[in-house]
Amino acid sequence: MKSKKVLSLLLACAVTISMGTTVFASTEDQIAAAQEQKQEAQAGLAQAQANISDLESKKQELESYLSELNTQYTELTDSISQLSVEAAEKEEELKNVQAELEKAKQDAQDQYEAMKIRIKYMYENGGSTMLELLLSSNNLSDFLNEASNIASISTYDRNMLKKYEETQEAIKTQEAQVEEESASISNLLTEKSSKQQEVQNLVSTTSDNISSYVNQISASQDEASALMAQVNSADSSISQLMEQAEQERAAEEAAAEAAQAAEAAQTEDTDAADEGDSTEDSSESVDTTEDTSSDSTDSSSSDEVSADTSVAEDTSSDSTDSSSSDSGSSSQGKYLGNFMLTGYCNCAQCCGTAGNATASGVMPTAGHTVAMAGVPFGTQLLINGTVYTVEDLGTPYGHVDIYCGSHSEALSFGLQYADVYQLN
After folding, report:
1. How far apart are CA 293 and CA 361, in angstroms?
2. What is the rounded CA–CA span in Å between residue 401 and residue 346?
3. What is the rounded average pLDDT for all residues in the chain?
4. 383 by DSSP, 3-state: which?
5. What is the pLDDT of residues 290-309, one digit of tens each?
6. Cβ pair 87, 185 in contact under 8 A
7. Is the pLDDT of residue 61 over 60?
8. Which uninterrupted H or E stretch holds 14?
9. Looking at beta carbons, which pairs linking 383-386 to residues 24 or more positions away fall under 8 Å?
10. How many whole angstroms separate alpha carbon 343 and alpha carbon 353?
11. Continuous segment of H or E residues that includes residue 420
């Protein structure tokens, strides 16, 4: 009956171990899938951050260009204002010059009319006048004086007419110059106004482009936030799955230990049954003959002594093995446990940004640097015969992330388990 119970226990343990192994493998697959999703999210996050950096750079360039355009627009506005003032002054000057020209023309016309009247009078009444002057003069000197006065008046009229004509020419020249300057100012004003409109259009276009970049940056930042949330979610899932894997592995080890205990119990039952059969045979021999009983007793005593000797040797062997095992464990340092192992590098997919130093401030080195929380930086770990140094964070205690030289090496490392010893 006891053998049947032991057999049932063995079967149950075997089923439990089989189920635990299947579930454990499934959990490892989930961890691998979560890590792959995390790497994809980190790659997307790195791309989004690169896009944000590129957009920010372009936005800054446009903002600098917009500042230059605003400066040009302000200068053009000031120039147009100054030209408008100069144009108004030239227009006023032109009006004054034109008024002076009209006045000079009128004065010349009046002088010309007066001179014509005097010339006409002198020519029409020249003879009698000269005779009258001669008869009315007291002497020749008076006559010559009167004649000189008449000549002086004629000379004055001719000089004044010439002066007015020269004044008209000077005013006309000044008018042409003012008109030319006014036209030049007008053309310059038109050119400046056209340039101002062009700059204003550029300012409007640049402002629109900046707004577009701002919207793109905002969208990229939202995308980066979503990807960061995915990375954090993946980290949380990985941590939970790792805890689950540890629990499943502990359950598997417990089931294996139970199976070993059950197997040992069955072995003891079998030995006990064999010993019972041997005792019955010995009793039958005693009933048959005393000599045989004596021989059997001697033989039994010899067997017991032999058995005791064997048990002692087994105990001594187990003690020696245990002592040897303890000695080997102590020579490898403090045993921390059977930990999960993964690989990583300092690329953008693994770390978000490429080329960064570790959390301890040093640059990572392949075959030397590992990441694990729960122990101080500088802790040396012996894993699969290689001594590593904890120089980075990012994984919980019980999960060692080993730095690799490239992303392909980190991917090919996959998910492993190994005994971990602390050397310092």
Report:
1. 84
2. 12
3. 78
4. strand
5. 443 344 434 443 444 343 43
6. yes
7. yes
8. helix 2-124
9. 383/341, 383/418, 383/419, 383/420, 383/421, 384/418
10. 17
11. strand 416-422
Lowest mean pLDDT among 18-22, 195-199, 267-271, 395-399: 18-22
| Closest to 382 measured CA to CA, from 417, 343, 419, 421 | 421
The structure tokens listed for 90 are 């030239």
Both tokens of 56, joined, read: 């920010």
In whole angstroms, give the CA distance from residue 371 to residue 388: 10
Question: pLDDT tens-digit profile of 8-32?
Answer: 555 555 555 555 444 555 888 888 8
The span from the CA of 346 to the CA of 406, in Å, is 8
- Residue 64 amino acid letter: S
Is the pLDDT higher at 36 or at 12? 36
The model scores a pTM over 0.85: no
Distance CA 212, CA 220 (A): 12
Q: Which residues contact 154 (CB under 8 A, 6 or more apart)?
A: 118, 119, 122
SS3 label, residue 212: helix
Residue with tokens 């446990």: 337
pLDDT at 311: 35
Would you mind telling me the total number of residues written for the chain in this entry?
424
